[in-house]
Fold these 4 entries.
Entry 1:
Amino acid sequence: MDSRFDRVRYHTASNVDDPTYWPKGLQKWTPAILFQIFLYVAVCLIILLTIPNSLFDPVTLSVTFTIGGLGLWRYGWWFTHAVRATIYGRFVYPKMRSEGQKIWNSGWRPRHMHFMMTTYREHREITEMVVRSIVKEIVASGVPGTIWLGSSDRYDEDIIQDFLYREARDVDITLRIIRQNVSGKRAAIGLVLRAMCRLPVLDDDLVIFMDGDFVLAEGAVSRCMPLFKLYPDLQACTTDEEVICIGPRWIETWLKMRFSQRRLAMQSHALSGRVLTLTGRMSVFRAKNLKQLEFIRLLEADHLEHWLSGKFRFLSGDDKSTWYYMLKQGSHMRYVPDALGYTIEVIEGSGMERMVQNFRRWSGNMLRNGSRAIKLGPRAMPFFIWWCLVDQRLSMWTMLVSPVLAVSATFLSGFNYIIGYLVLIALSRLLLSLFLFGYSRRVEMSYPWILYLNQLINASVKVYCIFRLSKQRWSNRGNQTAGGDGSQLLELYRMWMARWCTMVAVTLLFVGTVHYTTLVDLPSAEELRDILPTLASL
């Protein structure tokens, strides 16, 4: 038994409602944490008061006000999400959970429990923990269940079959293996859904989509199922995630920070009866939607027409495709914050390379799906959700404005400006992190700087990806790649055109920001008329 997974076994076996395991509310704010925050703020203030800075010098005053104005806008948007998340988490969802629990306690159960699971050469220990968590949920519910396994390798099938024979022979559970004949996770899901259409899966049956590295926490299923009985118009819901990382400590901290962001945003979105993704880690659907040919084809062969890349198919992002289908149908979707599961990330090789790959995959999926979702318009969804999609496109540019201005102001006024800027970043990201601490298992004082680097790298990767949407790579599924299917000459043209577009976009961003803040004055029309003859004569 691999000792690397001992911590995973401990966490996944713990009771998530136990406050000693997962401190909540004021329990997280220990004296040591409060002292660290006080020391953090004190150091920042001492630097501002003792080291000369040029934040408010006449030359750079407009830069500081521009950065501050953008910050107020972004912090206001963040605060809006925080307020909405609090309303959903403190008032709306507790009522939903209470009524759903009454339905469950009254004896209502789904007719059957369907688990749609895909996996690809996963570690044996992880696969067994995943299947064990499914078996526990089936036993706790007291209804029969079926695991629909989308598989491309005998290795995974043997592990699951062997486990069920050893530990679940007395459980009313059926394993249906659908061996895919086309590579890729999307093909596997499509074949499973087509198999469901041929067998007695009823329209009102509930199907749980989950990945092969996602371990269900106790009660995850029982907290989702009754909501579909409570709300007949509810078509899909997605759940909470916690990460357990077998790899560098900094990667785990970064992922935990991202999951904290996800919880805050998901609760804010769910207040509008929609979410921005139906995560493939675990989501629950009414079967009638999954049996639609349009739904199946969208999963199998989702594609996009792009002015530069032409028509290309999506490699990853199946959760975004299912979400887009439900969004287009005007379906009611919810987030269930106390239905928890554990994502197990095994980092082998370079942690930095894995982080960049994840950013490219996540950002690419967002850009590919966000543009067509925006085109549906605010009438197809609540206006707040539509504006969230628009804001995702805006924030990738606005996030880059402040570092561009700070570096430019440093060159003009000296090194003191960047010192003051970094102190402002430290304080502002601490303020944002205070909101995240409420959604994190513990308070991590590295969050402010991880948050800033996350925003900066994410925005940069999005700018890079927006002109390279067809270029896709997914190391988790056998190192799949996509893009570059044309002739060598065509691909060379696309590569250089993408580089040209990126350069023009970044240049316009730089020139526009430094001109707007009067750091650099662009030549007037009259000056250009005087300069052009001179340039022409050279």
Note: The chain has a mean pLDDT of 88.
Entry 2:
Amino acid sequence: MGPGDVLAGRFELRRRIGAGGLAEVFAAHDRVSRGDVAIKILHAHLAEDRDLAERFRREMAVTRALDHPGIVRVFDLHEHEGRPLFSMELLQGRTLYEVLLQEGPMAPEEARRIAREICAALQAAHRAGVVHRDLKPQNVFVTSSRAVKLLDFGLARVAGQTRLTSKTAILGTPGYIAPELFAGQRADGRADLYALGATYFEMLAGKRPFASSDPYDVTRLQREAPQLDARIREEDAAILRRALDPDPEQRFLDASQMLRALTGESVPKPPATPPPMTAGEYDVLVHNVVRPQELVQARPPIVRVLDRLGAEATPQWRWRLLGAGQAVLVSAASRRTAEAAAAVCAEHGLPATVRPVSLRPRSEEFLSRYGGWLLAAVCTIAAWLVALVFDANPLWIPAGAAAGYVLSWGLRPPPSKAPLVGLPGQDSSMARLADGIARRAERLRRGKDELPESHRQAVDELVRAAGDATGLARKATAETAPDSGPALHQMDLLTSRLLEIATALDDALAAAEVREGTESVVLRRLKQDAEVAQQALRLEKE
């Protein structure tokens, strides 16, 4: 296939532009519209896979609906000798990758302008329920007039089908893939914002934030804060730190937040959020050595740790911890979850260790459940023997039973009674999002009484919308993960709406903290946030 060939009876190929793992691209002349276009056609060997070819058509049909000046326009879907193809606008210029390779780091103002244009395009795509999943400088096109166009929306999800299955394939390029994707989480708009952060870093520093040829080494580096170049201004560094945070809950919630930060506006800080929790084969044990000064503290370390992890412990578990000095805090968690929980414990001065589930003592669960009765029975028998041999007072018998019961508090509570047990499976992103919305709504509800009466109605409407959003998120969490194209698109659309609502809640919380002199501004902000949340829910129901 080359210059002079005619595809689908209308596209006369002029020159080959390039090729990737999925398709090859040609400049062509459209004999029908009499204009020049670009043609992207699926490789012949991949077109033989009917499922893959159908997914290619479906994803391109979704992308075709995107209408934004910052996204390359897809015109029509066609087929040539069984190979699906689509026509799109023919661009003149270079990819951002080529610009950086040839010119080196950009001036901060130019880098920020390009980042803003990328962010605006992502905002439009996410609003339509489309996540790029493979944003990188190679997929950002800078035209001859310096305008920015995003390429290859939807193709990352198609590419995933060529690698194992959709459940095991990791979509994207190492160095730009958000860390949660390596942990098996589903990509949402915040993964695109992470990739934009990595691209923005590269524009400013002329190198990747996590430069390594080893994907596993990149994954390790991504869990740490990137080493920022000394030439990067502090206002840009603050944006990069937040965009590249390994925890998606601590990043910008949606593209509108990051766009505001890129334009110099202040963006509310995210609330403290428990680390992601997924099931696995590790326990976290806490070692609670009681210090005299802690006995009079209102919030001893174990209470602070439980709050930070978003967990609640029964009084029985706490008393057992006090008696035994050791207990399982997190039961049957993934290694990443266990290490994150242990790090939280260390942060608050509470000793903790990570233990494989396979190393649990076999007697631990049995003694924890029945040890109290056994010790009470043993001490009762001992007291009866003492009373019998020494002709002592029979009151020794109940006293012995009571002593045995008290001694049983020195036994550890079982892992099945840990504050964090029964963790979700592989993908907990939607559950975390639901919890985050609920936490924000509760904070807003608690602070409502401090607001003027005129403000409370807007807060009530926003809290109600947040409650509905939490219900939608929890319902999506309980359902089986979708695997069909339309179902995946609906899940992306739902997640986008939920992130909009979380953003509105953060803005409302920030506005509610403003006091004297700006009540009309606060009220207008609260009403706007309530309208955003309600509109997001209406669009989702439609």
Note: Confidence is low (pLDDT under 50) at residues 161-170.
Entry 3:
Amino acid sequence: MLNAARVLLGVLLMSGSAFGARYHVSNAGSDANDGLSPEAAWASLERVNLGPYQPGDAVLFRRGDSWRGQLRPRSGSEAGYVTYGAYGEGPKPLLLGSVARNSPEDWTDEGNGIWSSGGALRVLGEALPQGADDTLEWRLHREEPAEATTSWDEADFDSAPASCRVECAASGESGNRIQLYIGPFAIERGKLYRLSVRAKCTAPFRMAMPHMMMMGAPWSSYSGGTGVSEVREDWTTCTQLYLANTTADDTRLTWYLGAALPTGAVLHLDSLSLEACDGSGWLAADVGNIILNEGERCGVKVWNAEDLQEPGQYWYDEAQHLVKLVCPQNPATLYESIELAIREHMIDQGGCSYVVYENLRLLYGGAHGIGGGSTHHIIVRDCDFGFIGGGDQMGGDRTVRFGNGVEFWGAAHDNLVERCRFWEIYDAALTNQSGGPETPEYNLIYRNNLIWNSEYSFEYWNRPEASETYNVQFVNNTCLNAGHGWGHTQRPDPSGRHLCFYNSPARAWDIVVSNNIFFEAKSHAFYAPGWTDEQIDALVMDHNCWYQAEGVMIDFKDSPYTMAEFARYQAERNKEPRSICADPLFVGAAGLDFRLRPESPCLNAGADLGVPDDFTGAARPADRPPSIGAY
């Protein structure tokens, strides 16, 4: 077992923050204020995202208030964290990743029991110069082994005098190997932009629409994700919407063509326009879930208009940016609350470091609750995450949905998630994962969290072999009913697992899973079918409480174990000698009271891992062993 001193060392690396300015945010505030007192609070997330902040500063949201949209945090430094927290009294500040559709006027009768909702798009003007594809410079960036060239084609075009021609001699293995971009041009924060471009290719392919981003280093993103268009041999119109997250005059559009553009193909692009629009209420991205009456019921996503057959089914029309729902009457007359979860990370922290999130409540997001790659020194504490995920991950018709509560993607280290609650998460409540190429993930601690009705409680994988993972600790968490959430029956791959360890060839050591309660799972409590015996032996596991009345509880390659076979698992795997298989005896799980009854076998049955307090923040007694679970 990893000793307590080492556990605490990882935490100490992430603690402490200097005191700086305190900025306040309130529904009664104004963005014209300076934010430096409750009386002079700001009003919007847009103003919060502008900053600027210094290490040690804090952004405090008023309790009882709510905001819609995406929070884009700013980094602190070793001198101090930037904190996003709460002030005042009452419920935690609420961040919503959804659009409300509660009024009958929000819905249009399409006939045959189908109702649609979207938003009026009013064009404000052209954001690019007239004939921008002729006046702005098209540029091509390629990286070996990809081979491509670009030129003006005055013989084959959609509109005079020429089109942009890209010849691909070798596609490469990833999108960044061939980049076609055009710019610079100006955008304004908060405006919606509609791109239209005509395209054709000698070999049909699925073209990812361009990213709106900074013209030069560090090439920051100026908008969210992009969709995919089918490019054929004849000219076709491709469109994309962008919501600008900043005001800038150094903007470019970048097509990542590597891997997708077929080798030997010739692509033409022409008739480029970018219109600035008023998109009030516009559904600019996929709807990952429809939450009805605050979770009493959820919509059932289908992938084609013709599949809209049964009440509750819905389809997101990517071309028109409408959602269509099967309902016997106007949905707003049947349900008091209708939330459309938009496919966008609620907190997009890509590249951030030295940030604290505490005492926040995140609901109804169609992507991740907190997501983004390459993070370090992140603390997520005393936050709530509910009804997260379900958005279309790839765009187009690939039907792959996603959404985690907190995800640390790619290179991540010295991050902590503690005393948080997760429920109704489409994928994993907590996860660190990476696809390489050489990715280190270390000093990641998940402790004292409550997780229920999520598809996975904790998911981990890291690839390829050149990557490495170490000192990851999943300790003193209480996990219930994996796979009992809203998304399970809608998934093409229904899983329902507390620990889901997919194939992970990265070198790994000091991965600790201890002092946790794993109670009931639709499929497996522990799933690692692709892990080698050596990898499983390297897991540090003990003092857990397992309970799964039916089915395979622990599933390794060619080695399934039911709860009744737990002793055989312990003996064959030489693992978890002090873990138990028993009902943890919660005070009232049906009422979400996951405290332990006086007769619980988990009381004082854990190991001292140096975790000083429990889910409530109360100190763990020093005169006896700690209990298993978050309490």
Note: Helices lie at 4-12, 45-50, 132-135, 331-334, 533-538, 566-573.
Entry 4:
Amino acid sequence: MNKSSHSERDNRRWLVVALPVIVLLLLIGWRLKLKAGDAAQQAEMMALRRSMAPLVTVAPVRVKDVVQTFEGVGNVESKLNVKIASKVSGRLDYLQVREGDRVKAGQVLARIDPTEIEAMLRQKMAALAEAQSRLAQAKINQNPTNTGVTTNIRQQAAALNSAQADYNQASKNLSSQIAAATAAVTEAEGKVSAAQAAIASADAVVNSAKANLANATSRLTRITDLYKQGFVAAQDVDDAKTTLSVQQGAVDVAAEQRKAAVAQRDAAQAQQRATEKQLQITRTKAQADVEAAKAKVSQAEAALDYAKANAAQTPAYAQNIAALQAAVAAAQADVAAARAQRADTILKSPLDGYVTGRYMDPGAMATPAQPILSVQSVNTLWVSVPVSEEASRSVYPGVPAQVSLDALPGRDFPGKVVQFNPSADPMSRQFTARVAIENPGNLIKPGMFARVTMTAQRIPKAIVVPREAIQKTKTGSLVMVVDAEDTAHGQTVSLGASDAADVAITNGLEPGQRVIVLSAQPVKDGQKVRTGNQRPTGKSSQEGASR
């Protein structure tokens, strides 16, 4: 009984062990069978694919205009940018406009103090009246007696004496005025030197104060250490801190004194420059006055000699009248010149536009050729664009363009090339084209960043294919043409111009043929293909040809 029970127990144990093994072997066999079936199915599918014609996308050969465009970037510039300066020297009395103000042509923008010029004008008018008086007197006495001639001589002598007196006075004024202006320059130079010395002294005071501050800092550190060790009293620490604060204040005071000395030096230098400029103006004006007085002396001497030489000759009166008429004409010209100078004291805007620069304020001294204001016209603007050597052959005045600006997104402004510089920049090897655009509503401002698109070349009625259809080979360019039986044939072509989407074919294709633009696998010459959806081509060939 024991043996049989042990035997049954062993059989059950082996059955428990063998059953999972058997199940595992059955599962492995089933999995291997499934794998073999999948491999056979994949092999069958691969063979089917190899025997099947490849699926391709085709596009028709079309006729359209190939338009090549040139794109460039540049800055917006004003067509007219005028620097307004005075023709005369003087103090600026009136200047109300500022940057951004709109001005009209003929609007008064600034005025120069006309006091000196008006005084000169009155002097010229007095001289004119005197010349006219002498001319009138000569005409009244055209048939005088010898007494009249003698009177004329005396008048000319008096005029000569007056001219000589004016010349002497002008010579004395020249020396005194130059001496006074030179003394002012010397005084200003002394002030500058004194200010420089004050700065040096202030630097020394600052350095001394900083040294005392450093010494007070070190002393505070030492006393603090001694206080921590119990060698000194707390009062000593407080005294050292007070000394440190005093020295810090001394450093700040010395620094402020140095700033004041620097400001005084700058003011003295400005005064020196002003006195030097005034010396130059004084010397020029005084020398001009001397030369004018000298010229009047020469003129009076000539008139006196003329009167003496012709005292006994009756025809001399006619010549004397002519000379006096010339003197009147010269005086009238002087008056006209003085009036023109007075008119030059009023500065007007030469154009409609905006003020873009203001370089002076009322009270400043204006001198010729020194800008006071800058006025720019914004009705018509320019965009200067660099053009490469390749595109320069197709860019010339009159070429249409489209301008877009980052500051005004979504808007294009039509324009055209108005200037083209035929000389390239030697560094960048690029030419410069200027595109003119209108500025409706004054939205565009000079200095904005602009993008310009110009039509560089247009080839009408070109035979084109999509860029994807072109294959590059060792022997040239190739396209795969699909015939009516869906058989692919390799065709060598000659390429022409191109645009963003298409390439012109100059030889090798005819309109209406189909070319492969996309294929899931390489297509060989003579191979059957399956055409999928034809690629959209946009406009028809007639529409492309008629554009």
Note: The radius of gyration is 50 Å.
